Amino acid sequence: MSISPADADALAHSRRLQALIREQIAQAGGAIPFSRFMELALYAPGLGYYSAGAAKFGAAGDFVTAPELGSLFAECIAEALAPVLRAIGEDARFVEIGGGSGRFAEYAIKQLMLLDAMPASYAILEPSADLRQRQREHLQRRLTPPVFDRVRWLDRPIEERWSGVLFANEVIDALPTPRFVLRDGEVFEEHVGIDAGGGFARVDWPADALLAAAVRHVERQLDAPFADGYRSELLPQLPYWLQAVIGGMDAGALLFVDYGHPRCEYYQPQRGDGTLRAFHRHRLVDDVYANLGLQDLTASVDFTALAEAGTGAGFEFSGYCSQASFLLGNGLDRVLAAHEARAVDEAARYALRQQVKTLTLPGAMGERFQAMGFARDVGFGHAFLAGDLSYRL
C-alpha cells in the first residue's frame, strides 16, 4: 500500500519549517548540529512535528503507542506504581512526561482510583501547546469534574520539593540526539548543511569535548574501539535532562518505558549507521530530511546510559526488563480477566486478546520495548520481579 501524498496545506507547512531551518543554518555559518536540526523538526513552535496540529497517535496518525491500543498497558503501570503512591501518602504526586493523546492519563487515573492510590495531583509535563489542548479536551470528556480538577499541566518541572512518581512512555527516543562518526580515529559530530541543489545534507565537523568524551566512555565498555566510518547516536545530555525533569523530587519512583538496547547491543558493528529513523503514516521512512514537520524522528534508547543517569541522579536502580515481563509481572493476567468478565460479546474479548498480543509478543512490542525503574526512599523492586535483564547492562 503506497502512502498518499501530503495535501497542499501540509506541504506549505513543511516548506515554512524548511525555511526556518535554512535560516538557522545560514546564521550558524553553514551547518547546525544534527541534534539542533532534530529539535527544530520536532519542536519548533507552531511548525515542528509535535508542535503543530496534525494527529500523531493511533490509526489517524503516524504511529501507535501502547496506550492507544486500549487500557491494559496503563492499568498495569498503575498497578506497579500504586504501592509507591500509597507508601508516600496523601501528598503524593504523579508526573507524566509527554502525555500523548491523554489516553494513558485517563486509564491510569481510573485504575489508581480503583486501587485506592489516587495521588493528590496528576501532572502532565507537555511542551506542545497543541497536544496539551488535545489532552485537556480528552480528559474533560472522560473524567468526572472532581477527578479532572486534580489534573494539571506543567510548563516546566516541579521546582519545589515533592514526592511521588515520574513516568515517561516513548519520551527518551524523541529527545534531540547528537550523532557522531569516527574518522581516522577521531570523533566528529554530524551536522546538517545545505547541498549544491539547496537540499539538506550531512556535514561532519570535529566534535566538542563533551561528545568526544562520551564516545570514548562508550568505547571503553565495548570489546573494541569503533571502526572508522562508524556512525551512531549518543546522548551525553541525558543525565542533565533527567535531573531537570525530576526537579525538586525528594522520595518516590521513576519509571521509563521505551524501545532500545543495552549499550553492548546498541553499538554493534553491524549497526554502523545508528538507529535514527523517521515514521510517516505508519511507514518507516529512510530519508530523515523528507516531510519535515510531517514525520516523526526517533532514535533508540541506550538503556545502559539511562541506568547511569538514574543512579547518577541519586536514585537506586530498581530493575530492567522487557515490556512483556513488566506487564505480566504487574497484573496483566488479572487485569485482562477483569475486562473479559465485563466484555459484552466475543468480539470484545477477541479485541482484548489482540491487545495483549501486541503488547507482549516478541515480534510486536513485547521485546522491542523495555522498562527501567529507579527509586529513592521507597520500595519499587516489586515491579521488576519478572524477567530481569539487568545482567545485560
Going by CATH, the architecture of the largest domain would be 3-Layer(aba) Sandwich
Alpha-beta content class: alpha/beta
Q: Counting H and I runs of at least 4 residues, what is the number of helices?
A: 14
Q: How would you characterize the largest beta sheet?
A: 8 strands, mixed
Low-confidence stretches: 55-62
Task: Quote the beta fraction.
Answer: 15-25%
- Specify the helix fraction band: 25-40%
CATH C-level class of the largest domain: Alpha Beta
The whole-number mean of residue pLDDT values reads 93
- The 3D shape can be described as globular
CATH fold group of the largest domain: Rossmann fold
Oligomer: single chain
Count of domain modules? 2
What is the tally of beta strands? 16
Q: What does the radius of gyration come to? A: 21 Å
Order of helices and strands: HEHHHEHEHHEEEEEHEHEHEEEEHEHHHE
Separation, N- and C-terminal Cα atoms: 39 Å
Key terms:
393 residues; alpha/beta; 2 domains; eight-stranded mixed β-sheet; five-stranded antiparallel β-sheet; 16 strands
Explain what you see.
By secondary structure, the chain is α/β, with parallel strands linked by helices. The protein has 2 domains: 5-34 and 176-234 and 272-299, no CATH class; 66-175 and 239-264 and 300-385, Rossmann fold (3-Layer(aba) Sandwich). The chain is 38% helix and 23% strand. It contains 14 helices and 16 strands. It has helices at residues 8-27, 34-43, 66-69, 72-88, 103-114, 129-142, 145-148, 209-221, 238-246, 263-266, 303-312, 323-329, 332-342, 346-360; strands at residues 31-33, 93-97, 121-125, 151-154, 162-169, 179-183, 186-194, 200-206, 231-233, 249-261, 277-280, 283-285, 296-298, 301-302, 316-322, 369-376. The strands form 3 sheets. Strands 2, 3, 4, 5, 10, 14, 15 and 16 form an 8-stranded mixed sheet that branches. Strands 1, 6, 7, 8 and 9 form a 5-stranded antiparallel sheet that branches. Helix 4 (72-88) packs across helix 5 (103-114). The longest helix is centred in the first third of the chain and has 20 residues, at 8-27. 45% of the residues are buried. Residues 55-62 have low confidence and may be disordered.
